[in-house]
Structure formats: structure tokens, C-alpha cells
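pinning this so it doesn't scroll away 📌
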Amino acid sequence: MEFNRVSLDIEEGVATLTFNDPEVLNAIGPAMLSGIHDALRYIQSPKNHVRCLLITGAGRGFCSGANLAGDGSNDESSVGSSLRSGYHPLLLSLRDLDIPIVTAVNGAAAGVGMSFALIGDIVCASKKGFFLQAFANIGLVPDGGSTFMLPRLIGWSRAVELSLLAERLPAEKALEWGLINRVYDDNESLMSGAEEIARKLGAGPKSLGMIRKMYWDTWHNAYEQQLDLEARMQESAGATKDSAEGRAAFLEKRQPNFKGA
């Protein structure tokens, strides 16, 4: 299924969204941004029965950031407006998805492309992958939520270092820092591994979406608020058909057959 510079394939409940403008290493311009929005709306529709989202890039790169040659980013008066009207709603929609997200970083994840990579609940990369806060190299500041996520994921000093020095962070170092979850030898094994993870999550219970919401909320909740959220979410999870199936499978000593309901 093709959208504007984005492809979408759905198989066994897993939607694979591929940034598809390899000539510019999948840099995001207005056309691709529109395509991602359209693909995400398709994924969010209950009738399409998507239970896990896998995001990757075509060709040699995951996403090299904003397409400076074609999105008006050279006009400084338009940058904030473009972020608020285009990128922010998309990133918030990804944050609020009620299904797990896996990202497979097959090359450069630079600028806002790094933000899209890190939005994954499970972030995978090949040894060819790297992460780059490229903004300072062109006289800009980090965006796409970078200054929120990075200090929480890897600590203050490393986050500031990445943003000020604008140096590449290789996948293996990103794994060592705890920024990502898995590293694979090459792009072929990356996709095989990421797809395996996505299929496992896609076959999981409805509570997986609740789990990811709880972890996002913990970044702004006090301890007491998080305890209350856990209680409320546990009540919701316990009322699902998947919870009933999980309990029955446990008692019957068999593998559960979750339906995402």
C-alpha cells in the first residue's frame, strides 16, 4: 500500500511503515509528512486490526531529518509553524497509539529522524545505523522532542554532548548508553530481528498498549499518581477478553491465544 513517499504493509496484525524517499536518505518534506499522517490514520482505524507498528526506512538510511531543499526550512519564519502544524501532531499521535511500536534503524537517524527512531518502544539498529543530533551543524536547535527524551533516556551530560557537538553516535555505542534495545550485524538481520519482535508484540494482549501508556505517563506523574494509574489500568486490563484468556491458559497449562481485545 502506497502513500506519499511512504509505504505500508500489513501482515498478521503487524503494520510495517517504511519511509520511502531513498534518494535523499528519507529526509522528510511536506509530501512525506502528509504521507505519514495518512498512513497513521489508516493504522489507527479499528477495522484494519493493526496490533503492532514497525517503522523503518528504504535504502541506506532510516531518516536523515528534514528535507532542507524542499520543505521551506530555509525560511526561519516557517520553521516553528511547520513543527507545530506538521511534526508535533504526528509525534503526539505516535506517543498516544494504543499498540506497541518497534523501530528498525538501518542507517542514518539524524535530526528529527532520530526523534522518530526513539519513539519506538523497542528500538533496533544494525551496525550500519547511527544517530545524529545534526541541528547545531546548520545553526538550529534540537526539535522533535529531543530535549525532552534524551536527558531522560541517557542522562543530562550525554544529551547535552550529543546536541552541542553534533557528532555521530554509532549504534553499538547507543546500545552501550542504553539509548536503544538491540543491535544486529547487518540490515538483513536487523529486519529479521525487528520483524520477529513486532510479530511477538502483535500477538500479545490488549494490555501492551496500556503498558506503553503507563511508561509515557511516568515521566510527568508523581509516585502517588503513578500508583493510582496502575490501579486504574489494572482494572481495565483485568476486564479484557485477553486477560480472561491469559488466566484460562495459565490454569490449563497452554499458550494463550490473545486477540487484542
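📌 and the second one:
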Amino acid sequence: MKLAAWLRNPQYRILKVGTLGLLTLAFLYLAYRAASYWRYLNDPNSQSFVQWATGDAAERESLVTVQRDACPGAPFILPADGFIGLLYEDPRGPYSLLNPHQGIDIFSNSEPGVTAVYAAYDGYVTREESWRSSLIMRVPEDPLHPENSIWLYYTHMADRAGNDFIEEAFPPGTKEMFVPQGTLLGYTGDYNGTSPRDVWVHLHFSIVKDDGNGRYTNELEFTNTLDPSPYLGMALNYNCESAAAGCTPNPLCDS
């Protein structure tokens, strides 16, 4: 009788509804993760990742892009040689459809501290006091939209322990140091801050919007960044079906 009475209790009904709701949310999350994993397995770009992860040095070399000169009609040079493995607006892990990749990741076919990083364009370099692996460069006039200022962000230039590979000319606290395009900034590394997640040796490069008052906005927010494709003259947006390394006359794939 006590059990029957409890089953008729409003508190039991609330508990039942809540439990069913949690189970439904758990099912939807697992379904989403399964769909994401299936999409990852069937993504041609992911096949390149598998080749990069499992191949030897020679196989990796076939995926490396070297573009020391600017592509025709594009203002920027590629800031490092490597495999452009994560693209702009990329939803693959550790990113998602709701939180896509804010730039491009250029993976190095080398150990940390070997592959050079160059200034993609003329600009003014800043390195905040607390930055172990990062530089940001102010470009007063966006070459594609001269009425705007933009910032170029370079990071992961340190080893896992935080020993940086940034050139000595840019110590912590550097402010507004002018450098021309092609200046050596440092070398790629695998530093990932306090995150326990290991990352391959690479350069993360992004174009960050100015806040209108001469300061860079938060690079971690996707809406604060710009697609680097037209600046580099390469189809580097994940949503381009023909996204591939190398110069292209239609980097935005809008046809």
C-alpha cells in the first residue's frame, strides 16, 4: 500500500518526468556524437589526417604546402610550411558546429622548434607579458578592406613545457614593433597551455577583428575572426567542397 501511495505522489511524477528528460538528453547527445563521428570518418579531409597521423616522414611530406610567395592577387604569404589540416570554420574535434575553428592549423613535418614562422604581412607586433607561445600583429589597413584594421594571431610557438621558440627580438612585453612581411617570428611548437590534450607540432594562424578602438578582440570567439582564404589566395574554408592547399583563382568557392 505504501508503494502504491508513493507512485501516486506528485513528487514521484516529477522525479519520473525529470529522469525521462535526462535520459532523452543523454540519448540525443550520444546520437549527436555518433553522427559527428560518422561525418568525421567520411570527410575527405579526415582521410588526410589519418595519413598524417599514421604515415612516415615521406608520406607526410606529400601533404605539406610550401608557399613562400603570395598567391596571385592575394596580399598574405603562408606564414609556415606544413600540412594545413584544420581549416577555417572547421567543425571537427576539438571543435563543433556551434564552436567552429577560428583560423587554420598548419602542422609541421618536424620536431618542435624547427619549422620557421614568418610574418604573413607588414604589421606591428605585440607580445603580451603572459604569452608564452603567441604573438599578435596589428595591420592598420586591412589590404582587402582598407577602412578597417585587423590583427594577425600566431600561436603554439613553444614546447609542451612552455619554453618558447619566439625570436629574441620579441620578448614578453613587446609592443607595436614594426616588422615587414616575411620577417622570421619564431618556430612551430606543441604548447597547449594548461590543457591536458596533446597537440601535434603546428602553427595556429588567424585573422582577428579590431574592436574599433585599436585593440584586438577575443580570438576564441569565432565571430571575431575573418576567413583567411582571400587573404592567402587559397581555399581554406571547411565549407568549400574543393578545399585544398595551393593557390586558386576562387579561394572563397562561391561559384
